[in-house]
Structures are given as structure tokens and as C-alpha cells.
Design goal:
The complex is a heterodimer. Chain A is mainly alpha-helical. Chain A has nine helices and no strands. By secondary structure, chain B is mainly alpha-helical. Chain B has a domain of about 150 residues: MetI-like fold. In chain B, helix 2 packs across helix 4 and helix 4 crosses helix 6. Classes of the chains: A mainly alpha, B mainly alpha.
């Protein structure tokens, strides 16, 4: 192993990576914003008492959860413009694809959280004479929200990391700029190490925060 | 626009070969990754800082970065470490095994934690040695509790194997992408590829759920 590392040439081209990072963050942030609402709406469909609504929604969610992200992204980029005859910028397609993927994950999180609200709390609401809407607004929603926030944050990190797959369909995000840079300066190891560390530095504080929230919740429940 | 899903039968053989590669890759990486995961989980629960810290750093690194970049990283670093250029399949196996190790170590750790401290206390009271306690009391119970989660980890791994298409391994995704590009029929080919992944992964998730329910009943939790 007589390889001479040269991180300096990566840092000299830091602006390429910073441009990539800002697009990655933009895509991930937009997808998270859309998917919190999208996920909630899909979760309502999943929890619907009507089979006719529940079954297609379940199939939709399961299809996304049981196929690779890469296949979904390729499908979205190649097939959606063909099938719908709409041609969007790759950035917009990237945001839409990632929002759709994240929505199905968030939907499962919302569904799980609503179902985890203890039955006796709902019974207590009925006993107190609260209307179904009041029970949802004052009992189910606040309790479920506390349960779901850590999962939404974890899914958000997952979406940020999944945004790296968009590099394979030529969206110029962080991974893409990393590949470009490594080809330009012939330093793949150094470049990909720096890119990996950037992903880590963005993800780690959020995952530590999730850990802290979880610990606080466990303590509060004791 | 007209679609002709009949044309996929012409490509059934290469697609099946691609699927075979995907499944083989999943099996190898699951086996190697679980061994690594078990070692990492034991290291993380060790009283020694010297064992604990590197294990924590490894897990955070592999869980905090995209799998795609891990693949590229291993792909370029492995030749340096080994001194020769391995086949791309080997690089893929190494990268995905390291990733699976980080994921399954969390599974094993959760399973280890779920074993009540009274079990440990009872073993100490019975005068069992550390090794006997681990081998006959803790590990068998842990393995049982970890099994359903390990199976769902292997579904995750099966889906992640699609990424090896990016480093030139001819798995299902890569074969599908090549065919779709060369005949210009993405709708038919990519949809078929997605359906094949789904048809394998979905029943597996149902089996895992059933298994989990039976296991929970058996453990009377």
C-alpha cells in the first residue's frame, strides 16, 4: 500500500460539492415537506373502514415498500414522461419521485402511530361524551403525533440518503458532483470519502436527535 | 402509444439470470453480514471501550451514508487494500456485507437488550461461567427473537442489491436497464423488473409477519 493520499485537490474543488449538496438538501427538504402531507393522506386511506378504499391504498404502499428505490426512480424518470406525456425538469422529477417514495413510508408511520394510541384512551374519550371529531383532534392526533415524529425524522434522513440515487438519472446532486469531480481529478477514493463524510455530517445530528427524542419518550412513559 | 408486454418473453432468459445474480448476492451478503452484525453487537455490549467505540463508529458510518456511496467507495478502495483488482462481484459482496453487518448489528443489539436482567442474575446465581451463560442462556434466546427482524433485514438487502447495477454487476436491475435502453421500451421492461422484485419481496414480508405473530405467542409476550 504505497498510495499517496491527496485530499487537497478535493478541497480545491469544494465548490462543486457544495453546489451538489445544496441541490441534495433542496430536493430532500421539498420531498419531506410534500411527504408529511402525502403520507398523512395515504394513512387516512389505509385506515379507512371501507375495503374499496383500503385495499388499493394498501397495494400502492406495499408496491413501493417491496421494490427497490432504484427501480422506482428509473421507472419514474423513464415511464412517467412517456405515459403522461409531460416533460418536467430533472430536478422537479427528482423531487416528485422522492416525495412519492417518502409518502408511502410516512403513511406506514402515521398508520402505526394511530394504531398505537392506547385503546383505553379512546374509550375514556367515549365515556366523557366526546364526539368522533373531538376524539381525533384531542386524543388520537396529539398522542399519535408524539409517536410519529421520531419515525418521520428517520424517514427524512432515509430520503436524504436515497436522493443519492438520483445521480444515476443525471440529477446534479451531491453524489453526481462527487462522481464528476472524481473523474475530473482522478481521485475517486478521496472524493468519495469526502462525499460520504458530508452525507454523514448532515445525517448524524438528526439521528442523534431522534435517539434523544426516543429516550425522552421512554422515560416519560415510565 | 401502444404497449406490447408480450415482448418481455424474448428476454426471459437474461432477466432470469439477472434475478439469479440478485438472489445469490442477497444470500451471500446476508450470511456474511449477519456474522459481522453479531460480532458488532457483542462488541457494542462489551464493557471495554476499546471494543465498543470502533463498533459504534462503524455502525454509524455505514448507517449514516448512502449505500450507493459505500459501493463506490469499496469498489475503489478494495484494489488498494488487496493489491490487485478483484472482480466487481467481489466488491459488491464486500460492500453489501459491510452494510448488512451495520444493519443486523442493530437487530442483534435490540434482541440482546430484550432479554431480561433476571436471566443474567439467575445464571450468576447458578454459578455459570461467562461463556456458558452466553452460549446456553443468552444467545439461543437472542437468536429466536432476532429471527423475524433478520428476515425483514434480508428483504431490505434484496432491494438494496439493485444498486450494484451502478458498479457494473449484471443483476436483475442492470439487465433490465440494459434491455430497456437498447430496445427503447422502458415501460414494458422496467415495469416487469419492478413486478419481479415485488413478487419475491411481498410474500416474504407476509411470511415474516406471520412468523413474528407466532413467535410472540410462543414467547407469551
Amino acid at each position: 500500500m504505497n498510495y499517496v493520499y491527496d485530499f487537497a485537490s478535493v478541497f480545491r474543488n469544494a465548490d462543486t460539492l457544495i453546489d451538489g449538496l445544496s441541490l441534495s438538501l433542496e430536493i430532500a427538504a421539498a420531498a419531506n415537506l410534500i411527504a408529511v402531507f402525502g403520507g398523512f393522506v395515504i394513512a387516512l386511506l389505509l385506515l379507512s373502514p371501507s375495503r374499496l378504499i383500503r385495499l388499493p391504498a394498501t397495494l400502492f404502499v406495499e408496491f413501493f415498500r417491496c421494490t427497490p428505490f432504484l427501480v422506482q426512480i428509473f421507472w419514474f424518470f423513464y415511464c412517467v414522461p412517456m405515459l403522461l406525456d409531460v416533460y418536467l425538469s430533472s430536478r422537479a422529477l427528482g423531487i416528485l419521485a422522492l416525495s412519492l417514495i417518502l409518502s408511502t413510508f410516512n403513511a406506514e408511520a402515521f398508520r402505526g402511530a394511530v394504531q398505537a394510541v392506547p385503546r383505553d384512551q379512546i374509550d375514556a374519550g367515549i365515556a366523557l361524551g366526546l364526539s368522533p371529531f373531538q376524539r381525533v383532534a384531542h386524543i388520537i392526533f396529539p398522542t399519535a403525533l408524539r409517536l410519529v415524529i421520531p419515525v418521520l425524522l428517520t424517514n427524512g434522513i432515509l430520503a436524504f440518503q436515497t436522493s443519492s440515487l438520483l445521480s444515476l438519472v443525471a440529477v446534479e446532486e451531491l453524489m453526481f458532483s462527487g462522481k464528476m469531480l472524481s473523474a475530473k481529478i482522478y481521485r475517486p477514493i478521496e472524493t468519495f470519502t469526502v462525499v460520504a463524510l458530508i452525507y454523514l455530517v448532515v445525517s448524524l445530528p438528526v439521528s442523534q436527535w431522534v435517539g434523544w427524542l426516543e429516550r425522552r419518550r421512554v422515560r416519560a412513559e415510565r | 402509444m401502444d404497449f406490447n408486454f408480450g415482448l418481455i418473453w424474448k428476454f426471459a432468459v437474461p432477466l432470469a439470470q439477472g434475478l439469479g445474480t440478485s438472489i445469490l448476492l442477497s444470500l451471500i451478503c446476508m450470511a456474511l453480514g449477519s456474522l459481522l452484525g453479531l460480532a458488532l453487537a457483542l462488541a457494542r455490549s462489551s464493557p471495554s471501550r476499546l471494543l465498543r467505540l470502533p463498533a459504534v463508529a462503524f455502525v454509524e458510518l455505514f448507517r449514516g451514508t448512502p449505500v450507493l456511496i459505500q459501493l463506490f467507495w469499496v469498489f475503489f478502495c478494495l484494489p488498494l487494500v488487496l493489491g490487485f483488482e478483484p472482480a466487481s462481484f467481489t466488491s459488491g459482496v464486500v460492500a453489501l456485507s459491510l452494510f448488512t453487518g451495520a444493519v443486523t448489528s442493530e437487530t442483534f443489539r435490540a434482541a440482546l437488550r430484550s432479554i431480561g436482567s433476571e436471566q443474567r442474575d439467575a445464571s450468576v446465581a447458578l454459578g455459570l461461567s461467562r461463556w456458558t451463560r452466553m452460549r446456553y442462556v443468552i444467545l439461543p434466546q437472542m437468536a429466536l427473537r432476532a429471527t423475524p427482524v433478520l428476515l425483514s433485514n434480508s428483504i431490505t438487502l434484496f432491494k438494496e442489491t439493485a444498486l450494484v447495477a451502478a458498479v457494473g454487476i449484471s443483476d436483475l436491475m442492470s439487465v433490465g436497464e440494459n434491455i430497456s435502453n437498447s430496445i427503447g421500451r422502458p415501460v414494458e421492461i422496467l415495469t416487469t423488473v419492478a413486478v419481479v422484485y415485488f413478487v419475491i419481496a411481498f410474500p416474504f414480508t407476509r411470511i415474516v409477519t406471520l412468523l413474528e405473530k407466532r413467535l410472540l405467542r410462543k414467547l407469551a409476550l
